[in-house]
């Protein structure tokens, strides 16, 4: 490649640059052979080097991207990967994100990306069954989506007292509290920290026998704090808790919260798309009763990492919660032009920088729009249904095997289970054995999964969200756990 312009960075020859990477990317996506990323000493030393004073030029960098970065990439897209709540983008998602990064890098101004972002939010609202009057915005992920939802709740709590907290600070909010079950993802606590309410003011409510938030304990906590004059900012429900995939009793939470004038925020970062499977749809109740809902397209929808979303009943309230004053240099932000603008830069287009914590931001909705254009609502419904079937298959196989035990019945696409050879009852020994099983299964690389604790017991925890995974991968995981468990038991 040559250096065409005034700058040392190449700005042309895109086709040869990208074409030179494609064979390595295709090879990576075949996930053949042992996982090279495990041999980190080989690539740490190559990549972690002093800042170069003079650049090596495009060809050298492309060669390293090809031979070191891609070749040692993390196989979260492998069909046998069921760890944590993550996967890799599908082909069209990756292609759309690539195109977006070049041709529509910003979500603002009257560009196709700006429009597509708004259309994609509208599609998500419709796909998940929210009323068309709901809106929202894309975020960097579930953490920020929860932050925005709870930020809107904080603004709402202030406005009930005649205060604008986003403008004036939260001093007027007396001892603010947010209520959520002990199973709630820790990013909710961080959101309170970032919003100045303090992580310690997340009142963690124990779960009932089913693992869902205990409604009696919640009401008692709400009564106690109301009597103490605390500001009650939000009740948070899980729609797919990260440990076992449980859905809190959302209709009851909505009733309890709204009877008291409190905001209901729901964390559906993982399980939001579970709404598409009629077998579990009722667990979510009427979504119109939810004030804000976090959902992560970079999880089950397999958008590129960096794509979350928050859906809200009232976009204007969200914009007041994250208001940013207009500067002289960006006064176009306040201009709305009906019809064609003279230049796309005359009008910031749909959405505003007020609805989040970014100012410059990628048009994240382009990947969501591309995915939904490719597979449609029915395609996504089929994926969710298949993944719920995968979790159910793991549970069935565990129940029918004498050596496995289900620790949490699947609700969505997670099934927690463990290897339990006949005669072993000591809990500490079972924990230690299963920890070794997970490590050895991962080391073999055919299937990779992760773990959690269920009622104190160490559990193997596959979470099926991967577009490349099907029932045969669920079967393969169970086979591998059995094989590894038997080997480890025989050798100990
Ligand atoms: C239920 C839940 N909430 C929030 C998050 C955080 O989302 P993110 O990692 O996209 O910031 C996760 C991540 O796994 C999650 O599963």
Could you tell me which ligands this complex binds, including any ions or cofactors?
pyridoxal-5'-phosphate
Side-by-side strand order of the widest sheet: 1-7-6-5-4-2-3
Portion in beta strands: 5-15%
CATH architecture of the domain at 95-372: 3-Layer(aba) Sandwich
Structure write-up:
The chain has 492 residues and is α/β, with parallel strands linked by helices. It has a domain at 95-372: Aspartate Aminotransferase, domain 2 (3-Layer(aba) Sandwich), CATH 3.40.640. Helix content is 41%, strand content 11%. The protein contains 14 helices and eleven strands. It has helices at 14-30, 40-47, 58-70, 91-103, 112-127, 142-160, 165-168, 186-194, 215-227, 250-259, 315-321, 365-400, 427-444, 471-491; strands spanning 135-139, 177-181, 202-205, 232-238, 263-268, 292-295, 308-312, 404-408, 416-419, 451-454, 457-460. It has a seven-stranded mixed sheet, sandwiched between helices. Strands 8-9 form a two-stranded antiparallel ribbon. Strand 8 (404-408) and strand 9 form a beta hairpin. The chain is globular, with a radius of gyration of 24 Å. It starts with 13 loop residues before the first helix and ends with a helix. The model has no long low-confidence stretch (mean pLDDT 96). Bound molecules: pyridoxal-5'-phosphate. Pyridoxal-5'-phosphate binds at residues 85, 141-143, 185, 187, 242, 267, 269-270, 296, 308.
